[in-house]
């Protein structure tokens, strides 16, 4: 199961794993729209509980255009993770180019109330060559 995740970052005892897949059936290539789905697993390896509060994404397309997306939680949730617990979610990204990248960070709140910034690993968004035109 671990091999499912291609990209990993560990920060302050919290592991973020990412798997990404191009979705040709959800893309509209003739209209210049490519779509990817990404699966994220967050693992609390700390000795205290944490709660995910915010997300901050930097999405870059093939032309170097950067879109910053920030907000509360992930897919409408602010999961609370006790030591050893994990949280999985799936989301998507659409670009007007056939490749790009995503990276960012989450802000968690630890038991004592202090913020903990956790890296989301850089991962490429790339359509297969036959889907790139």
Automatic annotation (TrEMBL):
Domain of life: Bacteria
Pfam families: DUF525
Domain ApaG: start-end pairs: 8-132
Coiled coil residues, start to end: none
InterPro entries: ApaG_domain, ApaG_sf
NCBIfam families hit by this protein: PRK05461.1 (NF003967)
Protein name: Co2+/Mg2+ efflux protein ApaG
Source organism per UniProt: Aurantiacibacter sediminis
